[in-house]
Amino acid sequence: MGTSHKLSPPIELGPFAFGILGLDPYDWQVKAYRAINDHTRTSLVAANGSGKTAAVIAPAILWWLAAFPQGRVPVTSGSWRQVLLQLWPAMERFRGLKVFDGWVWNQAEIRTPQGGWASGFSTDSPGRAEGYHATEESPVLYVLDEAKTIPDGIKTAVDRCTCSRILAASSPGAPYGWFYRSQHEEARHWARIKVRSDECPHLDPDKRARDLDIYGSDHPIFRSMHLAEFAEDVERLTLSPEQLRQAIDIPPDTKDGPTVAFCDFAAGRDENVLAIRRGNTVRIVKAWAEKDTMQAVREFAAMFEAEGLTAAQIWGDADGLGTVMIDALTEAGWRINRFHGGKPSREPAEYSNLIGEVWHVGCREIARGRISLEGIDNQTFRQLTTRKTEWAENGKLRVQSKDSLRAEGFKSPDRADAILGAIVCGPEMGGQMTGQSVAVSRPSEFRTRAVRGMNAL
């Protein structure tokens, strides 16, 4: 997409908004006015209830038609209700001003006496979004409202137009799609505005404080609602892509601590994985598919030797066919700790089972920036950021089952299980790490009765 010509509006958006419409804009709204006025593309992501429709989108549309009476403003959204019940009423409150004399206001349509217009629509057909091309006499401002709900195909159709300006605005959504990319991978092509709830004086600070107390600053609900950060299925995702990306991009200082290894056994099905945590640094040593169970056992044993591990430092998934591989390792001289994810949690009042605790505690450690993650590839990234939180019938937290994940098209999260197991298992729960040592308040209760007495870490 490119501009059809250089534009020099006879009046800038900011002075129009507060000088003609009589608005008293916040600082972030003034910043948005400048971006829309001066840049070809503007991407605005704002916390819920920020007022972006009434304070930015509506004034921008009216400004465009006032500045360019023959101009055109196609307005699309993933929701027709958003156009009809939110955006158009936000503009109609100004229709009595003298500057709009002679304008015709219809349902989701405005027309100027000079032939300019703004028209709202919602469509699933890319063809409906095409065909708008700017000319010097009739420049085009294309508005994409609630942009997170607009499919990539519709945005591609918009790209086929020759627009003078594009304004994309929305509350945050899932961490993928064109609107997400406009704030991240494709940011160089956009003037970006990000609006937190604390930048909006009309929003109740008590609600922000209450949400912070209920969810915590790291919870995806709080980060989406108040920090305007993208999060997938914010009400249920155990670790969001945004949180994981931040943990990778801004790793904590390396701290010494115990060595803990975790094995996820495929038993000929998915992937065998060995992950190791040394202090607060975690990495996957190897993840591989192997149909021959005994060959996989020999491979694990070789890696234990190469990494200088002792049996006491190693944990293995002992549920299902994993117990067969652990028995084989025991016969080979490696009597490792057995981890049973289906057993009761160490925090029985909060988590339905042990694997639910490991996922929630491990993901929380990552999100809080306490874990340094080395060499996270795309597959591991997806596994860590696609499993959802669920509530059991008794009201306790658990994680989405592997069968449910497969039904949604995801592979078994073997790599994620191994990483989180390495984070949470060991002599401490949650990483009571100091600069050079580990404060151990009690031995790990993850140990089974058979190995608890002999595997002193």
Please give a structural write-up.
- The protein is an alpha/beta fold and 457 residues long.
- The chain has two domains: 13-205, 3-Layer(aba) Sandwich (Rossmann fold), CATH 3.40.50.300; 259-452, Nucleotidyltransferase, domain 5.
- The protein is built from 17 helices and 16 strands.
- An eight-stranded mixed β-sheet has the order 3-4-5-2-6-7-1-8. A six-stranded mixed β-sheet has the order 13-12-9-10-11-14, sandwiched between helices. A two-stranded antiparallel ribbon has the order 15-16.
- Helix 2 runs parallel beside helix 3 and helix 13 packs across helix 16 (414-424).
- It is elongated, with a radius of gyration of 28 Å.
Structure summarized in a few sentences:
The protein folds into 2 domains: 193 residues, 3-Layer(aba) Sandwich (Rossmann fold); 194 residues, Nucleotidyltransferase, domain 5. The chain has 17 helices and 16 strands.
Largest sheet: 8 strands, mixed
Distance between the first and last residues' Cα: 61 Å
Measured as a percent range, the helix fraction is 25-40%
Structural class: alpha/beta
Secondary structure: number of strands: 16
Q: What overall geometry do the principal axes of the alpha carbons give?
A: elongated
